[in-house]
Amino acid sequence: MDIENWKEEYLVGIESIDEQHKKLFARMDALTLALYKGQAVSEIEELVDFLDEYTVYHFNHEEDLMMKYRYPDMLKHIELHKKFKSILFSFKSEFNKRGPSHNLALRLEKEIIVWYKNHILIVDKKMSMYLNEKMP
Ligand SMILES: [Fe+2]
């Protein structure tokens, strides 16, 4: 699978999390392309819904692990997830109100994908270092 925005350096060493991150990047790439190419609204809608639902699923997975292994920085991490969910909500609202656009593609690249990259490199890596020591 060739994911344009994905890099080896995003690996955090926890299989389930890495797989979910890869899947998110693959679909975000597909969505960016679909928006620039002006693909069918139904296809774009499916990708927007996926991004929204899978992000929640993925955050819940991380949060369950943090809770299970009593990660000391858990609350700060959850707060960041919460803030990002509101960015995603506003992205989705713009799509629902105005339909697909180049502006949405730009927001995806400049806000959402950039957020994920930074979050993985700093916040998820820190969490994973802790979890890797605690998990059997
Ligand atoms: Fe996270």
The amount of helix comes to over 70%
CATH H-level superfamily title: Hemerythrin-like
**Secondary-structure element string:** HHHH
> Which range does the strand content fall in?
under 5%
CATH fold-type name: Four Helix Bundle (Hemerythrin (Met), subunit A)
Q: How many separate structural domains?
A: 1
For the secondary structure, the number of strands is 0
Instruction: Sketch the major β-sheet.
Output: none
Q: Give the averaged pLDDT, no decimals.
A: 95
Number of helices: 4
Shape: elongated
Low-confidence stretches: none
CATH class: Mainly Alpha
What CATH architecture would you give?
Up-down Bundle
The assembly state of the depicted protein chains is: single chain
Radius of gyration: 15 Å
Cα separation of the termini: 29 Å
Query: Which ligands are bound?
Result: fe (ii) ion
Architecture overview:
This protein is an all-alpha fold and 136 residues long. The chain has one domain: Hemerythrin-like (Four Helix Bundle (Hemerythrin (Met), subunit A)). The chain contains four helices and no strands. The protein has helices spanning 15-37, 41-68, 74-98, 102-134. Helix 1 runs antiparallel to helix 4, helix 2 packs antiparallel against helix 3 (74-98) and helix 3 (74-98) runs antiparallel to helix 4 (102-134). The longest helix is centred in the last third of the chain and has 33 residues, at 102-134. Bound molecules: fe (ii) ion (FE2). Fe (ii) ion (FE2) binds next to helix 3 and helix 4.
